[in-house]
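This week, look over our next protein:
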Amino acid sequence: MDIVIRPAAPGEYETLGEITARAYLQDGLLDFGESDAYLGELKDVAKRAAAAQVLVAVADGALVGGVTFVPSGGPMADIAGPAEAEIRMLAVDREARGRGAGESLVRACVDRARATEGCVRVVLSTQRSMRSAHRIYERMGFVRTPERDWNPLPQLDGITLLTYRLTL
């Protein structure tokens, strides 16, 4: 399967939003399921594209996944500090997994970070259960940064996102 990584086109935003939302729901990554407020954020690709770079993975002419790349802070950054880029909302359609789309998306983000003047590292947050994603990150040289782990909903106990970084 040949995978092409490129910027998302506006006509693909709805499809990518559905792929992302479905991936998070099917993998049990939303604590409140269909009523989780984050589901709307996952579906709103136009909002992400207005504040960051949204990339898609296309295989055999079909959109199979996407990622949001935040080059240097900005409204889409969760944990990125000065001189850091951030990877967010990586998702690959369940039927297309295991064929390199996720890794290709992460590589594209790392390449973009390297091309960003002054950028010295890439950071990201992930859930404990995202083991396939962890394997991709670790294979690519990302290291855990437990000192940066955080809770996106501080009013609720037990929701901790793990963090990784790749020094460029």
Summary: The first strand starts at residue 3 and ends at 7.
